[in-house]
Amino acid sequence: NISPSMKLWGVVIEVNQKDIIVSLPGGMRGFVRTEEVSDIALHGNSKDNEGSVCAEVVHVGQLVPCMVLQVDDDKKEGKAHKRVWLSLRLSRMYKGLSLDAIQDGMVLTAQVKSVEDHGYILYFG
Predict the structure, then answer these.
(1) What is the pTM of this model?
(2) What confidence tens digit (pLDDT) does each residue in 74-97 have?
(3) Measured between alpha carbons, how far is 25 from 82 in angstroms, rounded to an integer?
(4) What is the total count of domains within the chain?
(5) How far is CA 65 from CA 24, 55, 81, 105, in A?
(6) Angle at the Cα of 57 (from 99 to 30), degrees rounded to 5?
(7) Which of 10, 45, 69, 108 lies at a 20 to 30 A Cα distance from 34?
(8) How many other C-beta atoms are found inside a 10 Å radius of the C-beta of residue 97?
(9) Is position 95 within any domain?
(10) CATH code of the domain in which 57 resides
């Protein structure tokens, strides 16, 4: 019952140069393309020589919030499987979130944008 725009928690099980494979509830697997890994890495200069940002942003075993972009039917060897495409970009996860909606005790995922002398600057998308 996975459909586009659903928000799920997943666990990173594999990190490649071109994508990330995420274990989803129900034994399903999702795929995250490099351009859907992070907002900050896409706009910053943190890409390595190969152009891969995947290994810099996540690691195997990490719990990540993700959003379903698309579900494709993938037919291999006569068996029908669903291929789930995901995004880890916070701008997609928190689209429409305003300061008025944030309450005490809420848990939000953020990326550290920079480390300062007095603390951190966090990016919420």
Answers:
(1) 0.78
(2) 766 666 677 899 999 988 888 888
(3) 14
(4) 1
(5) 10, 17, 23, 18
(6) 90
(7) 108
(8) 13
(9) no
(10) 2.40.50.140
